[in-house]
Amino acid sequence: MRNKAxxxxxxxxxxxILNGPNLNLLGAREPEIYGYASxxxxxxxxxxxxxxxxxxxxxxxxxxxGVLIDWVQEAAKKAGGLILNPAAYTHTSIALHDALKAxxxxxxxxxxxxxxARELFRRISFISPAVDAVICGLGADGYVLALDAxxxxxxxxTDHAPIGMPNDREQED
Length: 173
Known about the structure:
Strand order of the largest sheet: 2-1-3-4-5
Number of strands: 5
Structural class: alpha/beta
Radius of gyration: 16 Å
Mean pLDDT: 85
Helix content: 25-40%
CATH architecture: 3-Layer(aba) Sandwich
Order of helices and strands: EHHEHEHEEHH
Strand content: 15-25%
CATH superfamily: Dehydroquinase, class II
Distance between the termini: 11 Å
CATH topology: Rossmann fold
């Protein structure tokens, strides 16, 4: 199957987008840091983009670490990829790190703010070593960009072609 740009891709993959603690308060909690978009606004934008990319989305939020771990384990069995905004669990959760390490599909860590320009403790991530990529500091747009990146990671995971470069399947036609 080819997308609008004429590149081959795998159709219909499901991407889990998981959101950690306090992200249900987006738009109201510290908008000068996290922006004015609500999590519902972000979900709508992501679903619109997913339709263009021929991806299915499981978009979820929990304030509970164990629930997030259960969802990562579920994604490991069902998903073509995972985008995770672990929020404060970024800096504390070895259990979430371990769950991510057990997932073979592509994984992206996502943050609305630039964690490296904030408090020192926010610069430490237990999640980053367990994922394929990190996106931070782009606000709500980071979710859509993470989905674009995930589409490429899914398509290239078996072909090992660099992003933007044709893979073997594309050269066959």
